[in-house]
Amino acid sequence: MDLPHEPTQLTAMSIAALGAAFRAGTLSPVTLTQACLDRIARFDNTLHSFITVTADRALATARKAEAELKAGQDRGPFHGIPYALKDIVDAEGVPTTAHSRLMPETPATTDAHVTALLEKAGGILLGKLGTFEFALGGPSWDLPWPPPLNPWNTDFLPGGSSSGSGTAVAAGFVPAAIGTDTGGSVRWPAACCGIVGLKPTYGRISRRGVQPNTFSIDHCGPMTRTVRDCAIMLGAIAGHDPLDPGSLEAPVPDYVAALTGDIKGTRIGLIRNWYAGEATAEVTEAVDRAAVLLASLGAIVEEVVLPDIGHYADAKTLISMSELFTIHAPDLRTRPEMFGAKLRQRVIGGAFIRAEDYLNAQRWRAELARGLNAQFGKFDALVTAGWLNAADPADPAGSDFFRRGRNVTMPFSVAGVPSLSVPIGFGAHGLPLAMQVAGPPLAEATVLRIGHAYEQATEWHTKSPVLHAGVSA
Amino acid sequence: MTASPTPEEIALLARQAGLDLPPAYLKELTEAYGNVRQMIDRIPTGRPRGDEPAHVFVPTKFLPAGE
Question: Does ipTM surpass 0.85 in this model?
Answer without folding.
Answer: yes
